[in-house]
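Backbones bend. Shown next:

***
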Amino acid sequence: MSFLVVVVVLPAVLSFAPTATSKSNLYPIAKPNCNDSCGNVSIPFPFGLTKGCYLNDDFLITCNTTSYDPPQPFLESSNIPVRAISVEGQLTVTKVGAQTCDEDDPSTWTKITLANFYVNQTANKFVAVGCNTIATISGEENEKSYQTGCIASCNRFQDVVNGTCNGIGCCQTTDIPLLARNVNLTLQNMTAKNYITDCSYAFVVKKDEFTFSRDMLTENWEAEKLPMVIDWAIFDDTCSNSSSTCQGNTTCVPFKGPDNGYRCACEKGYEGNPYLHPGCLDIDECAYDGQNDCSSKNATCFNTLGGYNCTCKAGYFDDGKGGGSCQLPIKYECKDNNGKPCHSSNRVVDFIVLGVALGMIVLLIAGFSLYLGHRRRKSVQMKEKFFRENGGLILQQRIAQGSASSGTTRIFTAKELEKATNNYDQTKIIGQGGFGIVYKGHLFDGRVVAVKKSKIMDPNQVEQFINEVIVLSQINHKNIVKLFGCCLETEVPLLVYEFISNGTLSEHIHNKDKTSTLSWSTRLRIATETAEVLSYLHSAASPPIIHRDVKSVNILLDNDYISKVSDFGASRLVPQDQTQLTTMVQGTFGYLDPEYMQTHHLTEKSDVYSFGVVLVELLTSKRAISFDGPELERNLSQHFLSLLKGNQLFKILDGNILCEGSTTEELQEVALLAKRCLNFKGEDRPTMKEVAMELSGLRRAVKHPWANKSSTSMESQALIMEPSISLGYDPNFSVTTTGYDSIKDHMELPLAAGR
C-alpha cells in the first residue's frame, strides 16, 4: 500500500487576473524593488519571493530557478507548485491525488494538511477514475467532519464513454460540503484484479479543468498535474484591525470560515492591489470601451472618482424619463399651400402628437403588466411542474385514500419553508453531508424544525420516495425522529423533521470535551434504543425498511441523551415477497457491509453490520475511519476484530469507560456481540431483533446483577484467560478478570428470523 502525506504550513490565498477592458495591467502588483513574478506566474503582494516583499512569513513563495525552465513557484517548505495567485482570495495549485496500481495491495490514501488554507467548496470537484473502485473524500475542521465519495465501475471497455463521468469508468461529486484544511482521499478496489485497467485514481480538481477520456483506464497518465483551488485570507484577526493592511479606496471583507480572518477588496469604481500602498486607483471608465454607456445615450462621458457622468451632446436634451437618454428636440412647423404659417391646423397636429404619445405610454404600461403576469404564471407553472414531478399528486391521492393522515403528513409550501429558514440563511445550517443540507427553522405555529434540502432526486424513484414519506409519517416510535411533512414545489423535495437539540452521537463520542460526560450506562442505553429502532424497522414496519446508512452521525441525542435515529434519505422499502434488493452500492465508507459491496445485494443484515461498527465506536470512542494513526488502525472494525482475536480487547477500549469502574464482563459481552454483527457473511450475523433482546437483557443484568447467576459463556471466557490485563494508565493498577453471569440464556432462546 502506498502513502502520500503533504503538509502545507501557510495562510489562506486569492487571483489577480486583469480584464482586457480595464487598465489593471498598468497597476503595480508588488512592492517597489521586488520581483512580481516567478516564471509565468504573477506574485502579487501580500505574497512575495524575498524578505521585505511579503506581508509576513506565511506569505513567502519559493521560486525554483535551477530545476525548472521556466522557473516554478512553490508554497514555502512544501513540494506543491503554484499555478496562479489572486488577490480576490484564491490560490490555484498542482496537487497530487491518490493512486493505486498494485494488484496485491489494492488500496491507498492521501492526506492533505493545509495549515492556513482551506479547500474551496465550490470551485473544485472530487473525481475518481477506475473500475470497481470506491473513492472517498473526508474532511475535518474544528470537531466537525464530513465524508462523501462515489463508486466507479465498468465491466466492458465498450461501455465507457469519453467526456462522461457518471459512474462507468469515472465518477464525480461536485459539492465538497465542509470548508476544511485537513482532507483525506482514499481508494479501495472492491474486487480482485480488473483486466480493463491496472490503476485507479482519486483527486480534487478545479471544475472545468478535467475531462474524462476512456484512454485513462488503459494508459498511465499524470493526474498530479491537475489544478486544485484553495482559499486564503489574513487569519487570526478581524476587520476592526485591518486599517494597516487594507489600503486606500478599499473595504474589508470578513472571511466566512471556521477561523477569524479577513480579506481586502477594492471599492466599486476602483481597481488594483488593495494590499499595496497607496491602495486601489480610480478606473477611468471614459477611456475604455464597454466601461460606460454614454455613447448609446447620445451623451459625452466625464470621469469622476469611483464612477462617471454622462452629459448630453450639443443639440440634445435629457428626455426627463430617468433613463439619462438624450433626445433631439421635436419641432413642428405647419405651413399652408402658399408657404404661410397655418393656424387652425396647428391644433390638429398637436392632438395627433399627444395621441401618439399617450398611446405609447399605454402600450408600455400594458406590456409591463403582461410581463409581470407572465412571470407570475411561469413561477406558478414551475411550482406545479415540480409538484407533479416530485409525486405531489400521488401523495395527495394517498392522503385522500387514508394511506396517510393529513394531520401528520403535511404538504408545506415553498414560501413557508423559505420564511422558516430566513431564505435558507447559511447561519441556519446545522448539518450537511453527501445527500443534502439540514437547516434549522421556526414554523409560524412556534415549532422548531429541521428542514432537509436534498441535493438530487431520481425521477424513477418518485413513487418510492412518496411511500417512504407516508411510512415515516405513520411511524410512531419514541426513538425515531418525527417527520412532520414535506415540500414538493421545489426542484428537489424538502423534508421537515422535528428538531433535536443536543447534536449527534458522533459529536459526543469523538469530541474530546464531551467524551468523558457520556458514561458507559448511557452508551449502553443508546445502543439498546438504536437496536430496538432497527428491529422495529425490520420486523414491525409494513413494509419493512432497511435504513442503509446506520452510523453515529445519524443518531441524534436530545437534552436527556435519549437517542433519535434520523436520516432516511438512503433507506429502501422491502416488498413483502422479497428478502433482498439489488441496488447500486450506497452508504458511508467504514460502515458499509462488505458483502453488500461485493454482491450489490442489500438485506437487513447490512444494517446489522453498520450497527456493529456503531457498537465498536461506543466501546472505543474512535472513528470508523481514521488517518491519524498507523496503517493497521485506519479501519476501526478490522483493528477491533484483530485485537479481539488476540485477546487484547482492553488495548482499544475507551479509558474513560474503564476508569469509571465499568464491569469487565459487561464490556466483553458487548464486544462479542459487536464481533458477531461484523461477520463477513450476512447469514452468520444475528438479526436486529436478536441484537436488541441481547442488549436489553444485558441492561437488566447490569441493573439487577442478582437476577442472572449462570456461568460465563465459552467465547467470553476465552477473552479473559489472562489473569491480569494492564490498562496502560498506572503500572500498579490492573483489572483481574473473573467469572461473569452472562446473558447467554437470552442467546440460547430460539429467536424468530428477525421479521
Notes: Residues 1-24, 706-755 have pLDDT under 50 and may be disordered. The two ends are 42 Å apart (CA to CA). The longest strand covers residues 133-141. The chain has six domains: 8-93, 94-229, 239-283, 295-327, 394-498, 505-571+587-747.
